[in-house]
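quick one: flavin mononucleotide bound model?
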Amino acid sequence: MNIYYAPLEGITTYLYRQLHNKYFGGVDKYFTPFISVFPDHYIKKRDEREIDPANNEGMKVVPQVLANSSKELVWIFKKLISMGYDEVNLNLGCPSGTVTAKGRGSGFLKEPDKLEIFFDEVFDALSDDAKMLSVKTRIGYLDASEMEHLSEIYAKYPIKELTIHPRIRKQFYKGVPDMEVFEKALMMSSCPVCYNGNVFTLDDYNKINDRYGYQEGSDLHDVSNGLKEGSADNKISSVMLGRGIVADPSLARQIKGGSHMDKAEFKEFRRALEAMYKENLKDGNNVFNKMKEMWFYMSQSFEGSEGYIKNILKSKSYAEYLAAANTLEGNCDIKSGPNASPVSF
Ligand SMILES: Cc1cc2nc3c(=O)[nH]c(=O)nc-3n(C[C@H](O)[C@H](O)[C@H](O)COP(=O)(O)O)c2cc1C
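yep, here:
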């Protein structure tokens, strides 16, 4: 099974990815937070840094892009391939109002006819290279019943891998993933499928793997050769984890048979991250705000840490933040066993 670190805007920037890979690893592919492509072939300076190969050395990184015009997508795709990337991921999941209002991210899902024309144009323009395009999708904009038609559309194209996050747009990241719709989409897919959503613990992962993973010895396990032979089946090639790895940075490593993080290791990682942000972010306030984004997800990893985490999130200066984070570290042990699973099947 391939293990992917999900794109998380504001968290999994190249600075974070570098350190996560150095201290914990276990991740087969890191996806960049989405890169918006503007008309006239322009991306932000911040995003140029995300895709600079020098910032992504030593790990497999897949740039993710947000686009709804074939011209924009073809331009960024070609640029990324010429920089040495062998996969580009299209975001069809972002639920943010500013994104969906422009018909991008999950906003594109409410216009399936337009989406189909877009794919026709993209796959036509990219011809053979199009097999390096992967897609990350939700199961609908307004309703999960939309996924059936969306699955028919996806099945028409040689998509490298389809990541399915089984929620609709208005759920954002709340509620339980709709496994029934996921299973139907998996059956309908003509390309390798990656599952994404609410995998927070090793237990959660094992449930997904037991139910949908290829078992040992299966020659369909590896997607590195491209499309699976034959028609759709009910096995997944990969699992993508987001918040679960932020909360427990050793989760991917554990899935690969490695150890659970210990406190000394976490302390080193945290300090390295703070130092890296201090060195790279111009505005000092950004340093503790960035760290707060990570801590927001971390109560799962520390015993009895809720109150301490609240203090971290309330901090208004770097000094206040540091004091609150140190207090948590001094008072809370790292949880060792698998946590209660919020995933239900
Ligand atoms: C703070 C935050 C930022 C996110 N940014 C992106 C993004 O840039 N691109 C994307 O495709 N998904 C983004 N997502 C969605 C995640 O990639 C993932 O699909 C979602 O969190 C569900 O997976 P999880 O339950 O393992 O976290 C974001 C989610 C969160 C919580």
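Residues 219-232, 339-345 have pLDDT under 50 and may be disordered.
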